[in-house]
Structures are given as C-alpha cells and as structure tokens.
Write a structure and sequence with these properties.
Length: 283
Amino acid sequence: MTQEYTPKHFKVTFPADRPYVAHVEINRAEKMNSFIEIMWLEMGQLFDRLSEDPNVRAIVLSGSGDKAFTTGLDVKAASQGAVLSAEETPQDAARKATAFRRHIAEFQGCITAVERCEKPVIVAMHGYSFGLAIDLSTAADVRLCSRDVKFSVKEVDIGIAADIGTLSRLPKVVGSFGWVKEVALTARVFGADEALRVGFVNGVYENKQETVSAALGMASLIASKSPVAVQGTKEILNFSRDHSVQDGLRYTGVWNGAALQTKDVAAALLSGIQKRKPTFEKL
C-alpha cells in the first residue's frame, strides 16, 4: 500500500495506470503557485518521505492551474517576515547575520531534498516559471516544459543574489557559463526554444497537458527498471558531476561492489532472453 501524503500546499497522487510513479503538484494556483515559508518546509519533508517510500520509483513535479509552474517567492508575504523586512532592529550585526545564514541554509536544504531524493525527479514546467522555479528544476534530474513557458532567474529584480541553488547548479546543467551569467545578472525572461538550445530543458511540448503527460510517461519507463540500478545511477551521476573522473570511477566501484550482488541483474538478463517484461522487488 502506498503511504498517505496530505501536505497542505502540495497535491500528491499515484496514477493507477503508472505503477510506482508519484505525481507532486504545487497546489497554490490562486497565488500563481508562489511560495510562502511553510511551503518550503513542507516540500523538503515531502521529498524526504518519497525518497524512502518503497512504493515510489520515479516522481513527476508540476504546478497546478494554467498560469504558472511557480512565480517563485511570494514577495508580499516574505516582505512581512523577519528576513526581508525593511524594519531596522537593534540586534548585533554578526548575530543577525548568523540568524540569516541559518535561515538560508534551512531553505537550501528544502530545495536540496529534491536532489538528494533517491528517486529520479522529472519536472514539468509551464507558464510563469520564475526564480524558485529555476532553483527547483536544477535540483531535479530531468526538465520538460510547455511552449508557453516563461523562465527568469528573477532574484536581482528583488534586490538579492539567488541563494537557494540556481547559481550553484544552473552552470552545471547548461553548456554556457556566459549565458548563465547573462540571465542571472539581467533577470531577463527567456522561453522554451532558448531553454532547449542551451540544454536547460530536455524537451518542449505544446501545452501543459502534453508536458505533464510526457513527464509521467518518462517516469513510468524509469519506474519499470530495476530500482537498485536506477537509484544507483542517479547517485553516481550526481557524485561524478561534483568530483573528478577518477573519484567517480572509484565511487562507482565501491557502490557496485555491493549493488551487483542484487537479484535484479539475473532477473533483467533472464527476461531479455525470454522476451518478457521483468519485475523487480521493492527497494
């Protein structure tokens, strides 16, 4: 039985025709799926749970409504909070900085929950996809979008440097560091074709429905593979991205020294010989 998930600001479903696939929707369409503080915390907890759920092997992340995947930070709500408030306080500057740093680290951890999730995450973006949308999508494994999407690394327009992941991850996703600097420094809006050209997204679809459908199809294909192999592949790819080739090879050897003992290898090979679809135990 699949666990019950009831976060307030996210909708979690498990399509009956797609075994082992979870579909997570940002569920604040009336506010263009903009994020308030509780949503960050909910999302981190949600992806940590999905990571350990043996009934989940792949995840699709999308936004509810027709207008936006997410417009990012709810600036009005944030401006009334402690971090972005314009009010002066008598607090010592070093102590205030320490509190800010801890606050930022907590929010970074909520986004990193998508990346550290053991299960592959496919993000399906549409409409306005600003600020946090870039942070979230670069923490995911595969990015798809609709043709009407509008992207922006928006943070310089609200007076801050992007601090939740974009500046660290986006340069490793796309092939042009100069392009990353341009869009991050200008906050200009760019569309689906440009995103595809620079390698930010893997595919472009005509509308939101087709984008989500493609994401669910991809997730279903991934979920049909050995979970030992899939989760190991994600782990090793992420490790190798941040380390040298030799470090990556060494880590792969250690990882597979344990993982190759799985029964999934024999099951996959035998199914190929017998020309049938293999089945794999839960992990």
